[in-house]
Amino acid sequence: MKVVAAKPFFTEEDMENIARDIKKCLKDGTLTFGPKVREFEESFAKYIGVKHAIAVNSGTCSLEIPLKFFDVKDKEVIVPTNSFVASANTVIFAGGRPVIADIKRETLDIDPQDALKKITPKTKGIMVVHLAGLIPPEMDEIKKICKEKDLFLIEDAAQAQGATFNSHKAGSLGDAGSFSFFPTKVMTTGEGGMVTTNNDKLDEFARSMRHHGRVGALHSRLGYNWRMSDINAVIGIYQLKRLEEFVKERNRLAQRYSEGLKRIKGIRPISVPSNIRHCYYKYPVLLEGKMNARTLENILQEKYDISTATLYQTPIHLQPIYRDIFEYKEGDLPIAEEVLSKHELCLPMFVGLTDEQVDYVLEALEKEYQ
Ligand SMILES: Cc1ncc(COP(=O)(O)O)c(C=O)c1O
User: Which CDD domains match (predicted)?
Assistant: First the structure.
């Protein structure tokens, strides 16, 4: 049995509806700046529970926009090392310096105490990353730090569509939220991203920045082409309608994994406090036995045709470009380095994964893990 690590999900009905609506866009010539982008933005803002949602063409520019708005030029932004490299890159693109913080072993999310230690007079904000779809359980502590130190809080919610904290959705918890709709994500538009905020000025800024810095008829800012097309928005509209279903199904699959893992000594799921709804973009496990995660990953692939993933085997500060620019080195962020290189693995997780496939993965783990 082959099991892939992740893939997008569309029902037959949704595919037909998407094809029909895209055909209408093609007929009407409304390929960009049309009604579908607006419809997607409005329904996304409503779902997240924020005033504004601004659709863009990637989860990278949806981070860069608020960072530019909060003017991080020559300033510092604290970013956890356990993320996709874009989280930190965007601080550099916006003219600032990412200051990389360590993670908590239990959640793989940012360690607020390490973030606190790294605050300097140049710090302008903190970026939290809801890794794998888990909003950091210490969100209140992080918010308090931001309030006391007068820092902005950006949520990199690229992996957290539909996740909640005290019933509030990811993307509504800070000054700005950022989503990616890359095909492996909990919902997709093919490529795409979304900025979410309650700040009217950021809304205006984002709309201008995604459209070459246009304000009225003139170009008052140095902007980009960061627009989402109506074709992508159509896909997003139908995916968003299914998001609650997707999150429930991912939680059901996660529950099945967690139950099964009880019988396997040394493999532990990440525990989730009851005030948080995980959306399980990924299902990471922590390995406490003697076998290295990388060895297990190879066995699963070679012997069982099971593909896994990692979040993230090489943390940001040890990526070659970060070693080059900022001279980060081994030993700088010891928890992330130890846990991620040897003890963390993400089991296959996507809507469409069958119970038989989950059981097959569990059986393989039971046979092979020591
Ligand atoms: C945490 C995180 N931030 C940012 C991004 C960047 O999103 P995109 O690939 O849509 O530009 C991703 C996507 O992979 C991500 O996982």
Answer: AHBA_syn (cd00616)
DSSP for 173-197 reads SSSEEEEE--TTSSS--SS-EEEEE
Question: Which numeric CATH code is attached to 12-241?
Answer: 3.40.640.10
Atom of ligand 1 nearest to the CA of 63: 4
pLDDT for the residue numbered 226: 98
Q: Is the pTM of this model over 0.90?
A: yes
DSSP-derived 3-state class of residue 74: coil
CATH 2.60.120.620 fits 243-368, yes or no: no
- Tell me the C-alpha distance between 270 and 268, whole Å: 7
Query: What is each CA distance from 181 to 16, 49, 178, 193, in whole angstroms?
Result: 20, 18, 10, 5
* CA 139 – CA 159 distance, rounded (Å): 16
For residue 159 and ligand 1, the question of a CB distance below 6 A is answered with yes
| Three-state secondary structure call for residue 202 | helix
Neighbours of 227 (CB within 10 A): 18
Q: Which amino acid is at 171?
A: G
In the block, tokens 């902005």 appear at 152
In the structure encoding, which two tokens stand for residue 218, read together?
């003139």
User: pLDDT tens, 254-280?
Assistant: 999 999 999 999 999 999 999 999 999
Q: Determine the Cα–Cα distance for residues 174 and 130; give it in Å rounded to an integer.
A: 12
**Do 304 and 363 touch, CB atoms closer than 8 A?**
no
Q: Which of 60, 89, 179 to mutate to test the pocket of ligand 1 (most atoms within 8 A of CB)?
A: 60
Return the domain boundaries, the chain.
12-241, 243-368
Asked if 216 and 201 count as a contact pair (C-beta separation under 8 A), the reply is no
